[in-house]
Amino acid sequence: MENGTQDITEKIQELSDLELACFLCFVAEQHCCIVEADVHDLEAVVEELSLICRETFGLTAAILRCGPSTTLDEFTQSILVDDTLRPPNVDSDAVEPKDYLSVPGSGAARHFKSPRPYSQELGGKIANIVIATSLNESSEQVQIQALELIRGRRIFSRKEVHKAPDNLLFIAVQVHGPKRLTLHLNDHIFISHLHQSTDPLVHIGRAGEGDDDDIASDAGSLSSVIHTPPITPIEASRSRTPHEGPFISNDDIQALVTRAAGVSMSPDVRAYIHDLVIFLRTHRAIAGGVSSIATRQLNLLSRVLAPFHGLTFTTPSLVALAVRKIYPHRLVLVAPERERSLQWGSTLQAVKELLKGVAIDDVIEEVLSNVDTPL
């Protein structure tokens, strides 16, 4: 058991930021994340994620390119893959239709009867990983369809019902900017990851030289969930451990799921999370985004991060890291005209000057610095 734990820890240290983001979602059993990038890096990030699906996790991937004219039929057809191409790492039970739907936040399962008019004998299955580009540019109906896929784990076409696999992961890749997903879909996104132009794309450059330097640079970036010390020249000369099949197997994922379930959280850390949520919710620059779903996912991610760092308990530093992944895509900055101090005599011009240049990341860092950290 100890050797198995050491093997997983060593694998984690070799993963890039994008691989870690996907890995976190699988271990947390959450089915969606956002990756934001510059417009000229978008296609490269999509290609990198597609390679990660196949080479790192051994799963099928479907790429959905969205836009204002994307229809519901195009959405449905784009996320289907030929079932004969499904890799051996995928458990056949994961893609078989089930007669129940798990209710989020409850241990029970709600039973239902599948509609008889819909055929279950389909020519294709929903891919394990759906990569949707520019989903925020698509119509509200398409985004509602994406939310239905994430929450209901199924999607309806004109004549068929398609069941999603148990290990579904929906990745929305979009240009870093002010335009967001619809409110409810955005709130169901588990974590966000900002890909900088300087961040390496390891799989695309695998055939080139300096891949390990790229991984070291990636692990040292501010957006990484795993921070490693600078590597020595001997360590830098090593490449990823040769392996047969996917680098991260389903057994690896289940091992971390088991370890995450046993992570403990002290009362002081619970109080710290509560204080962070209150400070974010009452910050004068924030108009919304600190929802109950976000709070539940903050608690979840704070626990899940522990086994990634070889711990059996949650620390304040892991909570701070979780805050930086949970809230950037959720928080909404207040408009100067709606800032609350206007009710108490502040002038609009003074408020505009105060909020000028304030970004969501600035608010998060200010809150983390103002809330007392438990010893």
Automatic annotation (TrEMBL):
<dbReference type="InterPro" id="IPR041628">
    <property type="entry name" value="ChlI/MoxR_AAA_lid"/>
</dbReference>
<dbReference type="GO" id="GO:0016851">
    <property type="term" value="F:magnesium chelatase activity"/>
</dbReference>
<protein>
    <recommendedName>
        <fullName>magnesium chelatase</fullName>
        <ecNumber>6.6.1.1</ecNumber>
    </recommendedName>
</protein>
<comment type="pathway">
    <text>Porphyrin-containing compound metabolism.</text>
</comment>
<dbReference type="InterPro" id="IPR052041">
    <property type="entry name" value="Nucleic_acid_metab_PIN/TRAM"/>
</dbReference>
<dbReference type="Pfam" id="PF17863">
    <property type="entry name" value="AAA_lid_2"/>
</dbReference>
<feature type="domain" description="ChlI/MoxR AAA lid">
    <location>
        <begin position="280"/>
        <end position="340"/>
    </location>
</feature>
